[in-house]
Amino acid sequence: NIVIFGETGAGKSSLVNLITRTQSAPTSSDAMGCTTKTNVYEHDVVTQNKTLKVKLFDTAGLDEGTEGTVPNKEAQKVLKKLLQTLMEQDGIHLLVYCVQGTRESRALHRNYMSLYSKVREKVPIVIVVTRLENQDPDMEQWWRKNEQSISNLKMTFAGHACVTTVTIEENDSDRLKQRREQS
Fold first, then answer.
1. In this predicted model, what pLDDT tens digit does every residue of 132-153 receive, in sequence order?
2. pTM for the full predicted model
3. Cα–Cα distance for residue pair 28/72, rounded to 1 Å
4. Of 53, 62, 159, 68, which Cα lies nearest the Cα of 112?
5. What residues contact 72, with CB distance under 8 A and at least 6 apart?
6. Among candidates 70, 85, 98, 93, which has minimal Cα distance to 5?
């Protein structure tokens, strides 16, 4: 069980599509969230000649205003209930904190601490930074630039990935296509 969480518009559903190499999770390019409830996507991951059956839990976005698709208080409540239910049943194997690399966010620390307080050190948390297709000289530059400030805020992650989740069109640049493939 892999739970993907983060702010509205961070690219959680796009990350599901990147991982599954499909377009099964609906996405939106506007500021309003399009995921209104937790959606579960089953996917086979092949690693070390073994096939792992994983469930990706795509959650509603956090920090959306009261006029949003899912107001923040409701999204927080649903996410905490999901974590509690999964921990009581099959367990949670990984939390993926999806953040938008192009956005400065005070919510980054608050959302991390809110989830960390629920799972403590029982579940590894990784950070996936999206929308880095224009990061120079490479997508990993975001991590090199921000790792220390994240550490200073007492946020620790079991791993990180700097990615682009944009859907590739036929006439996109070779550079963009290469970055998508790297992701």
1. 999 989 999 999 999 999 999 9
2. 0.92
3. 18
4. 62
5. 62, 63, 64, 65, 66
6. 98
